[in-house]
Amino acid sequence: MLLRFLSRRVVATVVLAFGVVLASFVLTNVVPGDPAAANLGQQALEDPEVVAAWRAANGLDQPLVVQFGNYLVNLVQGDLGVSQQSRRPVLTDLGEFGPASAELALVAVVVSLVVGIGCGTWAALRRDRPVDQLFRVLSLGGVSVPLFWLALIAVYVFSFQLGWFPSAGRLDPGEAPPPKVTGMYTVDALLAGDLATFGSALEHVILPALVLAAFTVGLLTRFVRSSVLEVLGNDYVRAAHAKGLPLSLIVRRHVMRGALIPIITVVGTAFASLLAGTVLVERIFSWPGIGSYAFRSATTLDLPAIMGVSLFVAFVYILVNLVVDVLYGFIDPRIRTA
Amino acid sequence: MSGPRRRVGFAALCAGALALTACGGDAEGTGATAGDLPETLVVDKAFDLKTADPGRQFEVAGTIVGRALYETLVTFEDGDLSEVAPALATEWTVNDDATEYTFTLEEGVTFADGSPLDSDDVVFSINRVKNLKGNGSFLVEGITAEADGPGTVVLRSEQPNPQLLRILPRPSLGILNADAVRENGGTDAPDAAETDTAEEFLNSQSVGTGPYVLDQFSTSTETVLAANPDYRGEAPPFQRIVLRNVEGPTQAMNVQSGQSHIALDLASEQLAGLRGDPNLLIDEVASPNIWFTFANADPAVSEITSSPDFREAVRYGIDYDGLLEIAGDGAVRVPGIIPNVFFGALDQDQAPQRDVERAKAAVERLGGPVTVELEYPSDFSANGLSFGPVAERLQAGLAEVGVNLELKPGPIATTLETYRNGQEQMGLWLWAPDYPDPADYLAFGPGELVGKRAGWQAGAAPEIERVMAEVAGESDDERRAVLFEEFQQLMNEEGVMFPVFQPTAAVVASADIGAVPFHPAWTLDLTAIGR
Description:
The complex is a heterodimer.
Chain A: H1 2-30, H2 35-39, H3 42-45, H4 48-57, H5 64-76, H6 90-125, H7 130-144, H8 147-161, H9 185-191, H10 195-232, H11 235-242, H12 247-275, H13 279-284, H14 290-299, H15 303-331, H16 333-337
Chain B: H1 3-14, E1 40-45, H2 60-69, E2 74-75, E3 85-86, E4 89-94, E5 100-105, H3 119-131, E6 143-147, E7 152-157, H4 164-167, H5 178-183, H6 192-195, H7 199-202, E8 212-216, E9 222-227, E10 240-245, H8 248-257, E11 262-263, H9 268-274, E12 280-286, E13 290-295, H10 308-317, H11 320-327, E14 332-333, H12 356-365, E15 370-377, E16 381-382, E17 385-386, H13 387-399, E18 403-410, H14 412-420, E19 426-431, H15 449-453, H16 462-472, H17 477-494, E20 497-502, E21 504-510
Parallel strand pairs in B: 1-10, 1-11, 15-18, 15-19
Antiparallel strand pairs in B: 2-3, 4-5, 5-7, 6-7, 8-9, 9-10, 11-21, 12-21, 13-19, 13-20, 14-20, 16-17
């Protein structure tokens, strides 16, 4: 059954990928503007030979249909083209920027899970009491405050005023990255047994991750609260109370299990959006992630990079949704057997 | 730097299960000691970096990097653009009509790998730039480079090229180790645009004679340079230079908190917050970039903007002083099209002055108030200045004389297209010099690069074009200066361009490395810091 489920997903993924490629290609090409103008200097643009050489080097001298066909053929072979900005294969770029965003997203999600589930559960158990009101205000603040503003304030307070965290980059200036395994510096440094680099990578990732977590913590707190409240009213929870089970056991064993389904949906969506890149936060922290890459690609009409990012984002959402669906089955046997 | 404080805060946060007091590295690794220069210089710059290959780079960050890695035949010393100084060439001669330049190379110069430099390297480097058909190719377009023995290079052109000596210091024309580049896929052949594959190699290591060598290269995070231990000149003062990709607002906080030594992209309001900080030294000057607006001279684009009366209304209706307020404290009016850092620039008192009555009279001759479109890029800024506020102030000033601007902002990728096609009724743009010679500004004349974008075709202003032709063939700098002044005076009378200002350009440096001047040609000269 799982195999059939996965097969259906793979077919859907291929169809979706084609749709994403087609939409990205068409939309990028219908936008008024010439990639050559966005990439070449003023003087160079006046030289037809230079413009022709640039177009030829980037495969833009072919009719659009041929360009699209070539892209598809290369895509099947795992070649996403060469970025006009970084002048490297897009796949290489994604392999560098993707893990950077993933590292940020993972830390943000871990923080969100711990804080969001804790606060949401506590708020539900103390419904309408001061702590519930407090968490309501804080979670509303978390989902309402613009992240770029929060990022600037965080840099000002924790980096500039208090000096607790660095404000830019993934490592200290000039520090060599650890040998690449996952592309996530904290993980790779640990794998290499390099604690100094691990420490540097961790202190660089914490502040931007906390800023990103502000939104997901707020979101999760509200969802967990309402889910837990819904479950708390069920007969089996009342029965557990009646049996005299301790509250912590009831919450762990009976309440959370029932409340997890909507929570996983929220976490999955939030994780995917973080993985897909958060442009402003990444730029403020000079974090070389997918968001920064997407921004630079879009502003320079870097077609291969734009399409590469679009595909990456689509795959992230597909993958996360797949994981969420599989997790549903594990948590709720009724879904597995349905 | 601020490592210890960071450790405390970080450890406090990590305290408990992770016991991360041991997880930190060695602060920033800069090794600063009191009274000495730090071992590592950290420079924050918002990256436009694309490549470390001199033949392919033309961006600001690329120029900064290239200048430190590669030397050129001649150079500018201490930011003085008026005199060209020896670099790899110890002396040179120029024939009377500026069509033949003969350079004598310094003897005993070696590349970072120890191999000797000779004329083949120079010829290869210049021909490669020309034949790569890239952003910098126009610099040596029409130039033929030939070796005359191992120590002499001759550059020839069919047309007089009096600006060549001021073009050659551009880091795009840095001299590479030809053998090393050839071994790694490089070529200077006419088909180099299709066949040269040396960029990846040049992004992994440098092959120049400069005081620094490339250690790490990234277009997204940081590029690291290391001291060249075999540099023939004075030993580089820093063991390493880290050029980091950091946005403006963060740069200001970094340089103030000691997390970096130099900030390069600060807006006027950010600079205001740093003035008076005893730990910072700020060099604030007028940028060589000029901001200008134009009125399209093509009646097919606009019957209104192509009218001489409209030009007069705009020229005397612009609120130049109001625009200067936006441009920052170090900004200045640009009286002609040539900025004040180059010879041939006009004096401030020669700038057109606002004359509301004269502008209104011109509008009356047009038949009363008029409305035209003003296009500008909305997602682009330079010297910390965005186009939006400038366009709005321009709009407010001209509205007072009856010229109503309908603002049409757009992404630069699209506005640049309409600008290039000469379709904008009015445009607001900036021009950054390609090389520090006033000849670069002939592009604003009729039939030239910018002129055509404003619908100003060849033959539209015979008197201006006569001066342009004369100055293009003139090799004597004194006479050239006179002609460039005449060119601008005529442009100010009948031209379709309206130069507005040179914005503030600033370099903010921490006091422990000393003052760092803004370089009018390269923005920042890394090789001059700490000397």
